[in-house]
Specification:
This protein is an all-beta fold and 54 residues long. The protein has one domain. A 4-stranded antiparallel beta sheet has the order 1-2-3-4, with no helix packed on it. β3 and β4 form a beta hairpin. The chain starts with 10 loop residues before the first strand and ends with a strand.
Length: 54
Amino acid sequence: MLNPTRIEDYFGMAEGSGDTLYLYMSNSDGAGSYEVVWTIKGSAVVSQFLFISF
């Protein structure tokens, strides 16, 4: 990920059912921004969803 944020308002975690966690971030390189969500089950990343919101 390019220039991940360190601002707490722009990243977080949500707990899903079972052993699933969702990590999310809003990042920027100064010229544009993007959002990313990782799905984690157990100790493995099972998916990554990346989108540009502008």
